[in-house]
Design a protein that fits this description.
The chain is built from 10 helices and 6 strands. The protein is mostly helical and about 300 residues long. The mean pLDDT is about 85.
């Protein structure tokens, strides 16, 4: 209203994008040179630092590529200069109603891409789970973030290095708390001016100044963004990706071995101190032996 009253004779417009992400096409797919916004969460997930997020996993993330934003600003400036008498001042630019992508889908593609193209150095294997009840978030954060971070800091101290994981998780928790408001609450936006602006672009110029969000292939976009963090942000050699994959497999094998040992220790403890556990284990072993005996008889016929 202030602009309409005080600057009605000036070529003024308001451009309101949602969360701005990595480029889709220009200058290069997934190109990134700073650790800000959603890129920081992608990197945290790829490094194995971020293991859980608060919010509705079926909610849509409102993300737009930065090169699409640039194209829309150029077209918006052109239209505003030509049509000064227009009262279409505010141009919302988002994707949730036009081409939505769910948080669960985005993080699934992120984890999958970082398993295929992992960082050379990681904290843990990439993995993600969403915490839907808000009151459960402190529990998930404590178990999946703070406890491993505490032991990691102990190992860093013993090796003579500075403990950084708990500090990292404090910063990460603050970033997640800022984002959680937008994750939990769905927003409804008007797209009238966006569609009007898109219709003004000549057909022969639509590929050059493309900002049509319905043409975004989200899987391709997420994969390019993840690979871009490895290739451009951390300047890692993509020809050595096979070594990073071996590191992922080695960590997986170590984790499985530790889980198996913990299971055996827990089973032995329960077997020695619980009569119910002994009877249950004996019943299970008896059923397994009976099943193996029947299987042997079946193949011997």
């Amino acid at each position: 209203t202030l602009l309409q009253n005080e600057a009605k004779d000036l070529p003024v417009a308001i451009f309101r994008p949602s969360i701005i992400g990595t480029p889709y096409h220009e200058p290069l797919p997934g190109y990134i040179d700073c650790l800000q916004g959603p890129t920081a969460l992608l990197v945290a997930c790829g490094k194995g630092v971020l293991r859980t997020m608060a919010g509705d996993r079926y909610g849509a993330i409102d993300l737009v590529p930065v090169d699409y934003c640039s194209n829309m600003v150029i077209v918006l400036g052109w239209i505003t200069a030509l049509d000064r008498a227009s009262n279409h001042l505010i141009y919302n630019y988002n994707t949730t109603a036009l081409n939505p992508m769910k948080y669960q889908t985005m993080y699934y593609w992120t984890v999958e891409t970082y398993h295929d193209n992992p960082f050379d150095e990681i904290y843990r294997r990439p993995w993600m789970i969403h915490c839907r009840p808000a009151f459960m978030w402190p529990v998930f954060h404590f178990v999946l973030h703070l406890v491993p971070g505490f032991f990691a800091d102990i190992l860093l101290r013993l090796s003579g290095k500075e403990p950084i994981m708990l500090k990292t998780y404090r910063k990460l928790n603050k970033a997640i708390s800022y984002l959680s408001y937008f994750v939990k609450i769905p927003f409804t936006w008007s797209h009238h001016n966006y569609h009007r602006l898109l219709s003004k672009v000549p057909e022969e110029e639509r590929d050059k100044f493309n900002f049509d969000v319905t043409r975004i292939d989200w899987r391709t976009y997420v994969e390019a963004g993840c690979i871009g963090t490895k290739k451009y942000l951390f300047n890692e050699d993509m020809s050595n990706v096979h070594l990073a994959r071996q590191n992922i497999k080695r960590r997986r094998n170590i984790r499985c071995t530790i889980d198996f040992i913990m299971f055996l220790l827990g089973s032995c403890f329960l077997y020695r101190h619980s009569r119910i556990a002994r009877e249950t284990l004996s019943s299970v072993l008896g059923m397994c032996l009976k099943w193996l005996k029947n299987l042997k008889m079946f193949f011997s016929v």
